[in-house]
Amino acid sequence: MAPSLRPPVRRRRARLAWWIGAVVAALFANPPSPLAKGPDKVGTECATATCHANFAKKAHVHGPVAGGECEPCHVQKGAGLHEFKPRPQGGDPICYDCHDRKDQGKVVHGPVSEGGCTDCHDPHASDFEYQLVADGAALCVNCHEDDKTTQKHVHGPVAVGECIACHDPHSSNNEVRLKKPGSEMCLECHEDKKEAMASAAHVHPPVKEKCWSCHSPHGTAYEFQLLDEVPKLCFRCHKDKAKQIENVKTPHGAVTTGKRCVNCHDPHTSEFPKQLKMAPMDLCLSCHDKQVETPSGAIPDMKKWFADHADHHGPIRDKDCSACHDPHGSDNLRILKRAFPPEFYAPFDPQNYALCFGCHSPKLVEDPQTSSLTGFRDGTKNLHYVHVHQQKGRTCRACHEVHASAHPKHIRDSVPFGSWELPIAFEKLDDGGQCAPGCHVPRAYHNDGEQKQTTPAEAGAKKK
User: Fold this and answer.
1) What is the rounded distance in angstroms from the CA atom of residue 27 to the CA atom of residue 31?
2) Is the pLDDT assigned to residue 81 strictly greater than 90?
C-alpha cells in the first residue's frame, strides 16, 4: 500500500525553509568570529563559545564535527568572512564520501534518490539518534500525511511512531521499502500466525501473499485494522457470494447475523476445506444444538434429533449437511440447494423433486411396475408410483423424515398436515410392511403378492 505523500515541491520548500531558518538563527546567535579567517583556522575554531557553540553539545554529534573536522564537508569561499558551501561531488551527496550508498535497493526513498540526506539528518548535531532532525514518526510526517494515528484502530508500531519497524528509511528490494517481502514482514511479529501457517492444512491465499489485502498496516476505523467491515471486505474477492447472498429468497442466518462470514470461516488458517472453523457437520451443530426460530417456522434441535433417531439419511451419515443445504442461502425452503416440495400434496413434476433426484433415480416414482427399484411394492406394483405419480400426489415428506428417523427407510412417526400431526403407523413385515395413516384404513403390502387390505391382527401374525 503506497503511503500518501505531500507534493515534492512542498517537501523541497520545507527543506529550504529549514536551512534558511538554521542559517539565520546561527548568524544572529553566533556572529562570524574574526578568528576564523583562513584555511588553517577551519575546524579548530568553528565551534567556539561565540560561533556554532551548540554543534558539539547535542546528544548526537556527527563524527567530523565531534573531531573538529569541518574541512571534509565544507570549503572556505574567501579569506574574509567564512562563507561556506557543500563540496561539489558530481551530483552525488557528499555523504557518500564516508557512508555506504543508501540508494541501491529497487525501491528508493524519495529524499535518498534526490540526494537529500539532510532532509532527515542534521549534518552537524541533533538531540535524536542518527542525527535525525525529528524523532520517530514526527520526522516522517514532515512529508507523509499524518492520517495514520487518527484512526480508531491503529497498528502498534504506528501508534508509538516506529515506522522503521517495518520500513527501511533508505531503500529496499520490497514494495514500499518493507524490510521483508509480503506477509513475511507481518510474520516477524505475529509469530502465532506464522506457526499456524506452518502446520495448517489450508491457508487463506491473502495470508500467504499480503496480509494488507485485508488489514491496513497503519490504521482504520475497523477492528483488527480491517480495510472494511465484514462481509463487505470478504465480498471484495468473493463477488459470486456477494451476488448470491444479496439476491437469495432464503438467507442463512449464519451469514446475516453476528460475525457473519467469520461465524463459520477462519480468515487465516484451517484444518478443513473452505477455511471452515470445524468439521462441516460439527460446525452446523454448533448453532443447531437448540431450536431455531425462522420466518418459515421453527427448526428443531438437530443435534438432539440425530441422537434420538438412529436411522440417519445418507448425507447425515456422511456428515455432509451441504449435500442438501446451501450454507450461504438459496431460493428454496430451508436453504435447500434444489427444489423440494414442502407441501403434503402436490402434482407430480420431476422438477419439483430435483433435490431427491440428485441422488435417487426418478424411475423410483416414474415406473408403475418394478421388481427391483424399491421394496415399497406389492408384487411388482410400484407403490411409490401409486402414491406420488398423480395429480394429487403425496410428496416425499408425507412419509419420509429427511434427516433421521426411528424407523427404517427414514419413515416418519407422523407428518404435519395443517394443524394436525397425521400419524403414519408404519410396521415392517417379513415380506413387506403395513401402515395405518390418517389418510386411509390400515393396509399391508407384500413383495411376493397382491396388495390387499389387512387388519392389524393379521399383519401382526406375519411380522418377524
Assistant:
1) 5
2) no
Contact 374, 329 (CB under 8 A): no
pLDDT at position 113 over 50: yes
pLDDT band (50, 70, 90) for residue 221: very high
Cα–Cα dist 24/438, whole Å:
105
Distances (CA, A) of 201 to 196, 209, 240, 274, 380: 9, 16, 24, 11, 52
pTM for this one? 0.80
326 contacts 335 by C-beta, under 8 angstroms:
yes
Q: Is the dihedral of CA 157, 163, 165, 166 positive or negative?
A: positive
Helix ranges restricted to H, 178-270: 183-187, 191-199, 205-209, 232-235, 239-247, 253-256, 261-264
Alpha carbon separation from 413 to 278, 385, 438 (Å, rounded): 32, 22, 12
- Of 440, 414, 408, give the one whose Cα is nearest residue 427: 408
pLDDT above 70: residue 8: no
Indicate the pairing of strand 329-330 with strand 250-251: antiparallel
Residues 6+ apart with CB under 8 A from 333: 250, 296, 340, 342
Q: Which residue has the cell 411396475?
A: 369
State CA 43 to chain mean position distance: 60
The percentage of the chain sitting over the pLDDT mark of 70, rounded to a whole number, equals 83
For residues 45-58, average pLDDT: 75
- Cβ-Cβ contacts under 8 Å for 20 (sequence gap 6 or more): none
- Quick: pLDDT tens for 292-319: 998 888 999 999 999 999 999 999 999 9
Segment 357-375 mean pLDDT: 95
Q: How far apart are CA 250 and CA 172, in angstroms?
A: 51
Q: Are 373 and 367 in contact (CB under 8 A)?
A: yes
Cα dihedral sign, 414-416-421-423: negative
As a whole number, the mean pLDDT across the chain is: 87
Q: How many CB atoms lie within 10 A of CB 61?
A: 18
Amino acid in position 200: A
Domain range summary for the chain, segments of one domain joined by + = 8-144, 147-227, 254-332, 345-462
Count Cβ atoms within 10 A of the Cβ of residue 68 and give its class: 0-12 exposed, 13-18 middle, 19 or more buried. Answer: middle
The residues facing 421 across adjacent strands are 416
Q: Give the chain's count of helices (H) and strands (E).
A: 18, 25
